[in-house]
């Protein structure tokens, strides 16, 4: 698939940057267009791979933002993006939409710029283009507290209702206790980028009909057509060296033994099984998925038709749906064989219920505090018998 990828806010831009890094490291070419949109000038300076001319600062003339961000205020994030909609639309004008199959908007839902601005950007894209618009949304960890949970729970409703499919990533599930938050984010972003790019880059070259079981971009679009919230599983293994110490893929066809035997099939099926049983980007009940798709990526000498067939049967049972596609994505020079599994429209994801509960509590607390704030300030600055008067 060929994508136009847009990071909104800080987390969104960092994740898109890691996607570009993974692409260049693995010789893929998924993101044909990229943009980073943010309200904070300093955050826009951070990416290593997003070209300077593709970074769009919004809200710099807004009194509440002034180029310094929106301080986690989702309302201000949305307001600023709406006010600068012309600038956002102008940035998209140079997207040669006929060169892409779909658009992906990436944002963290716990903050202000991505959480509030993301849905505004999505509206603009849906109006401008007929191509499907997907989102990758990061859910805040429980440890972040009530405000991010409230932002995320509200913003999730906007995102999911506006996009053609929403892929979730749960910071809570991916947090490693022994790391600092920044180190943790860095690792999560790399893990997430590997999953997204391995999955979505399948069929990127348009010559997929050369390989019998090759995954096509239309297969991915069809799987994501369900709408709702989706999750990705992933597993990878090093490609074994042959007895001569050379990688199999370097031997000529005549030398290459036909390895499409039981062991290779078992390896492919095992990899898909590991991917599904691994930590999903958004943990959820696999059997609640509407559709599933698995991409086997690596050197073609490692592929196995039997393996693909048995992986498909296994996945059909596991996800409890007949809408299952398994295909491969040849990467001749890859030292790894990997499986990325998309579970589309997963309807049971406990973390979303938790965030909603945390958000309702936070909303109540905020309302209570607002109700008594004036009174408390008054009590504090007024003497006991109200003998004193203000100066002016
Ligand atoms: P924004 O710039 O106002 O959209 O806010 P941020 O993107 O900085 O933060 C929004 C939310 O995204 C936070 O509440 C975190 O949950 C999450 N977040 C921030 N940075 C990262 C990151 O690098 N990786 C991941 N996975 N999550 C992040």
TrEMBL record:
Q: Which regions form coiled coils? A: 352-379
Q: Where does GTP bind?
A: 112-114, 144, 171, 189
Q: Which GO terms describe its cellular component?
A: cell division site; cytoplasm
- Which HAMAP family does the annotation name? CetZ
- From the Swiss-Prot or TrEMBL record, give the protein name: Tubulin-like protein CetZ
Q: Which family does it belong to?
A: Belongs to the CetZ family.
Tell me where it resides: Cytoplasm
Ranges for domain Tubulin/FtsZ GTPase come to 2-205
Chain's gene name: cetZ
Q: Which InterPro entries match?
A: CetZ, CetZ_C, FtsZ/CetZ, Tubulin/FtsZ-like_C, Tubulin/FtsZ_GTPase_sf, Tubulin_FtsZ_GTPase
Alphabetized UniProt keyword annotations: Cell shape, Coiled coil, Cytoplasm, GTP-binding, Nucleotide-binding
According to its UniProt entry, what is the function of this protein?
Answer: Involved in cell shape control.
Q: Which GO terms describe its biological process?
A: cell division; regulation of cell shape
Q: Which GO terms describe its molecular function?
A: GTP binding; GTPase activity
